[in-house]
Design brief:
heterodimer, A: 311 residues, mainly alpha, MetI-like fold, disordered N terminus, B: 374 residues, alpha/beta, D-Maltodextrin-Binding Protein, domain 2, twelve-stranded mixed sheet, 15 helices, 41% helix
Amino acid sequence: MSEQSIHTSVPAELAPPGKVGRLSRLMHRSERARGYGLIAPALTFMLCAILLPFAILVVMSFWTATGFDFDTSFSLENYKQALERPIYAALLERSLWMSGIATVAAVVLCYPMAYFVAFHVHRHKMFWIILMTLPFWTSYLLRVFAWKVVLGYEGVINSFLISVGLIEEPLEVLLYSQSAVIITLAHAWAAFAILPMYVSLEKIDRSLLEAATDLGDGPVMRFLRVTLPLSLPGVISASLLIFIPTTGDYITPALLGGPDGAMIGNLIQKMFGPINNWPMGATLSILLMLCISVICVLFILLTLFVRRRIS
Amino acid sequence: MDVLDQLGSMREGKMSRRAFTRSLFASGVAIAAVPMGGRKVLAAPEDQATFFTWGGYDIPELFVPYSEEHGELPNFATFGGSEEALTKMRGGYVVDVSHPCNQALPRWVASDLFQPIDTSRLSNWPDVMPGLVNLPGNDAEGGNVWMAPFDWGQTSITYRTDLFELEGEESWDMLWDERYKGQLGSLASGGDAWWCGAIKAGVDFENIDTPEAFDKIAAVMREQRPLIRTYTDDTTTLEQALASGEMVAAMTWNASATLLKAEGVPVKFAEPKEGALTWVCGVMVHKDAPKLDLAYDVIDSLLSVESGKFMINDYGYGHSNAKSFEQFDSETLASLGLSSNPGEILNAGHFQVPQSQEWETKMNGLFEEIKAGF
């Protein structure tokens, strides 16, 4: 941060005195102005692209739909319906549950990979990172379709099992089920688990590990008392990075979920599409955001607690 | 920078981070620049009209006259259901031509998003069958129409003749057959499925907007739901599943059965004893169509005999141009479930009846709940 601000002030000092000079002097003297100057582009973008649509969403969730038009008088009807009709709560719960499992699976499976590259690869680390993220250079949709091919009725798994002679009829449970969605989500977002965990593992000071060994910790205790707590920030950010977007995912359940694998994202999309009830869609989006926020806060508190206990 | 030098340093594993980024940047710029070189040779796609249509109509075969004249195809955008399309356009999406069906026509007109079609600008209009033009809500001022009819057909059951053991006559009960639990498929859009449910439940289309009708249809849809492998708006998914034997019967339009037969899959497009669901679809011009002249060329191309022959022969749909049927004998037409007199087919089945926006919203909401298992 400080290095960056020095860089930005260099051309200003070279500029001729006058208006620009005064501005640069102000920038130079006040740390706060410099800070605001630096975050201004991102802040403006956030205001226009995130806060404004969010405000519209909040306002709209208090409207009601009448045919094609909106009744813009304030009403809590949508929220009341969302609490009363079982479908909304059930889909919300199912989405949180499914993406929770997908997140845990992705983090648990990717942690060893990140660990391996951070601690046991000494040359060509960049090459390994590129290799691990290579599958994610293709489009998300393509990866979902690839899973459809793998899990399908005449897909890779079924053909293999039949040719080996383990089953006679193709397994139908593979595709169009909740497990298909969970498998695909866990795989499709794996890159978002590997990279943050790799970064936080890479940063760990190796002398701490040596110190732990010197003080008599075996490999398991050393991992639990030093490596794991120090890599927790990476685990937390990986979990959040996967959990938040997958809960609202709709393309994977739409293609692989079948009737039982639908998630709340599908319903929200339908609300803005064929059902044509935008206020209800807005309400569901906000409820989804609230649920995710609560879960994320609980999760962060829990990991902080765990970290304090074990370190 | 010297390429050989860089390759050498890479082999030795000594490439600096800066050099690596620089070569990445260079190759990125090079790749981005490649399409710009050849750009001017082609007619630019932004000069063409945009046709917003059902998946499967975005193919060159339907635009032979158009591409002969303009050197390129129109731009395509596709949708899975006409409600979705209308919602998108109400949200501000401007296209030149779109593709609703008779059931949606009055609501599309009422949305004030479309302009009447000046039929004198269409060279193929005199050959269009009048029975398809005279639909409820289709007259605009001055003898013009809102929707130029293009295709018509049925929603029925495509089933595998070798895998599905028929009990008695073909009937809608086939899609409610407990023996084939998990091997049946359905279109996801309420615009088809709900109406087929009404036929199955024995609800007359005139009374489809009554609470009793809603209860009756919802009951049969709930009964069907556990039997369905998947609901989808993507007909290719249904076709592939039928071809592989993953599904033995599915609710489809004419085209799926015709395409599968052409590939040698033993399927039949059922003629259910209760009657199939029938419809007429056509094209409408957006009020703010940016390429109005080209929009008329798109319509004319769709109404042409060339397109008609393709529609009948390859997709098995009816076409609105009377001359398209002259190429086929009545036997071929009958085997496709068509006739040169559309009235015969449309009235033999259950012809969709336009409904109010409230009905659509209520029906779609309820059907989504049922599909999700409630």
